[in-house]
Amino acid sequence: MHIPDGYLSPATAGVLYAVSAPFWYIAARRVRQILTGRTVPALALFAAFSFVLMMFNIPLPGGTTGHAVGGTLLAIVLGPWAAVLGISVVLLIQALFFADGGLMAFGANCFNMAVVLPLVGYFVYKVISSNSTATSPRRMAAAVLGSYTGLVAAALVTAVEFGIQPHFFHAANGTPLYCPYSLGQALPAMMVGHLLIAGPVEALVTGLVFTFLQRTNSNLIKADTSAKREGKIWLLWGALALVALTTPIGLLTSGTAWGEWGIEELKDLGLGSIPSGLERFTEWWPAPLPDYGLPRMGAVIGYILSAFVGIALVFFFLWLAGRMLLRKDRRSMEKRPPSTKKRYGIKSRDFLSKNISSITGALESVISSEELCHAPGLLQGIDPRIKLATMVLFIIVVSLVQSLPILAGILVLILAFALLSKVPLGVFLKRILIFIPIFTAFISIPALFITQGEPLLTLGNINITEQGALTAGILVLRVTDSLSFGILLILTTRWTNILAALRWFRMPSLFVTILGMTYRYISLLLHSTNSMFLARRSRTIGSLSGGEKRRWLGQTLATTMTKSHHLSEDVYLAMLSRGYKDDGIVLNDFGLKQRDFLWATFAVAIAALLIWSNYL
Questions:
Q1: Residue 514: inside a domain, yes or no?
Q2: Rounded distance, CA 371 to CA 368, Å?
Q3: Is the pLDDT at 225 greater than 60, yes or no?
Q4: Which of 233, 207, 229 shows the shortest CA–CA distance to 220?
Q5: Which residues face 464 on adjacent strands?
Q6: Which pLDDT tens digit goes with each residue over 121-151?
């Protein structure tokens, strides 16, 4: 159902852009009213499901293929305007990155699949399911009929757009300039397959997912859009990952969707002359992953990795759109500690104020990390032992991978994990990109010039080789990925749970005790030092000279070290008085749940897939 570039005239493409624009505008305004931190992940989940669903090709009569969309399901769960926005983002990603559809025809594809399909399907659903409960069979039947009607309506509009091109846009001798098939050819070719096969498949998929939601997450399909969308949504993400692993089934279907043929395929079909518009506009946009394939990888692995890349891109784009619509995340602003300047009423101009700001910022960073551990995210709900083991497994996989695209894909996967775990992207990127990856980049610079290979760039008499750039890139990405997994573990797990998990894995008790006390007293010493700075400032009238400030700073550091020494002695004596005998007591009572087994299975499957892709 995707219309490639070249099949529509620029005039038709422009008109359909203009027709779709009001729907995008209304969708943005309506979605902004219901958008919260809970609805963005749900929107991303069902939009990603639509992306994966479109990768499953269905054989149609005549040797062509079709696919389901899932737009009506998204409209039922989050509302029709959220479906307009979500499916539009999916179609944009498909056109930009996978050459599925075209950028010039993007307005037409959005009108067909992101406007007509969900709005028609949702209208039918509402008419049939009115005054019914969320778990009633009538509502499930309404979802099935609505999805079928929506897909058929979208196919009808697409066939009309194809069929009117030869009538309105042709050369003087009657040769079509764009789509070579008339309305009499396009209508039966599109409608028969979608009425008899693609439409029922869309209805079947919608019915199965809707039935599952009725039994496990009925609050997702209630009419009240303000209701809390909680429940086991993490289970839906796990199901989506498993579906993505089965996407190569779509490769078993031979043929191309009707109307999506390239120039060579049209010649093979016996078309006498290729329309000039097709020759001019086909494949003008160099998509990085055309036909859902990755370079130097097999079709199956490339298709699976493309599915996960697409899921990550859908989530990122919708998260970005959510940030743009909300502009300010009021919930995170309420939880965020006030800044140093607002809290203490000072301006970070002089030497003393800058030190207060730095120490307080470090203290707030520790506090915010503790708050993230309690957020209702994906990784926060995983057992610490399973989480620690899987993160170590991922780090081992990163150390074994020698492919730059795979390492880049792992980084995308990490960012998706961070977003699903409610970790602010700015906070996460700040922690992984400062110092260590930059330091690694400086270390890897010599490899650009000393590694033998094909010249990639010449700077005077110095050559940067392709092999050198590849080696440097692999080193930087490997360090970045490994560091990211470690930071993700720390940000989403309480420190006491990490220590307890280490003890469960039989790490030496002395090592765990030292590690726990070090982390705890870093925060305490930061707090003490910050209090000393503020006390000094509150008792100072006028300004101090630079030498006086430096002397006072040295005295403060010496006092802090003395306090830390006395504190360590007091703590050790207190531990002895309470019966400490070189072995810490673990109070955490862990228990494995279903989600822990699902996460462990998912992690092992991803790790095996990455290793297999690397050595393929």
A1: no
A2: 5
A3: no
A4: 229
A5: 457
A6: 999 999 998 888 878 889 999 999 999 999 9
User: How many CB atoms within 10 Å of residue 550?
Assistant: 12
Residue 76 lies in domain = 10-314
Q: Do 353 and 394 touch, CB atoms closer than 8 A? A: no
In angstroms, the Cα distances linking 4 to 104, 159, 197, 299, 555 are: 8, 13, 22, 22, 71
Whether 437 maps to a domain, the answer reads: no
Is 465 within a domain? no
Q: Which amino acid is at 480?
A: T
Query: Model pTM greater than 0.90?
Result: no
pLDDT tens figures, 480-504: 889 889 888 888 888 788 888 888 8
**Tally of structural domains, the chain:** 1
| pLDDT (0 to 100) of residue 615 | 73
- DSSP character for 226? T
Q: Which residues contact 121 (CB under 8 A, 6 or more apart)?
A: 71, 72, 75, 146, 147, 149, 150, 151, 153
Residue in 593, 575, 443 with CA at minimum distance from that of residue 509: 575
Separation of CA 368 from chain center: 22
Find, among 318, 297, 315, the residue nearest to 404 by Cα: 297
* First-residue to last-residue Cα distance in the chain: 33
Q: Answer whether residue 495 is part of any domain.
A: no
In angstroms, the Cα distances linking 321 to 47, 108, 511, 582 are: 13, 21, 45, 53
- Helices and strands of the chain, counted as H and E runs: 26, 4
The single-letter code of the amino acid at 142 is A
Residue 189 sits at φ, ψ, to 5 deg, of -65, -40
The answer to whether the Cα torsion of 514, 520, 526, 529 is positive or negative is: negative
pLDDT exceeds cutoff 80 at 517: no
Quick: pLDDT tens for 294-343. Answer: 766 667 787 888 888 888 888 888 877 777 766 544 444 444 444 444 44
What is the Cα–Cα distance from 232 to 234, expressed in whole angstroms?
5
Paired tokens of 11: 């005039």
Which has the closest alpha carbon to 47: 6, 5, 116, 94?
94
DSSP 43-62: HHHHHHHHHHHTTS-EE-TT
Two structure tokens written together for 309: 């890349």
Q: What is the CATH number of the domain that holds 152?
A: 1.10.1760.20
d(CA 390, CA 600): 7
Q: What six digits make up the tokens of 265?
A: 């395929």
Asked whether 410 and 391 are in contact (CB, 8 A), the reply is no
- The answer to whether the beta carbons of residues 63 and 255 sit under 8 Å apart is yes
Describe the chain by its helix, strand, coil percentages, rounded to 5: 70, 5, 25
Collapsed DSSP state (helix, strand, coil) of residue 104: coil
Determine the Cα–Cα distance for residues 481 and 417; give it in Å rounded to an integer: 12
pLDDT at 329: 46
* pLDDT value, residue 233: 63
Orientation angle between helical segments 117-129 and 71-78, nearest 10 degrees: 60
DSSP structure class, residue 68:
-
Q: How is residue 1 written in tokens? A: 């159902």
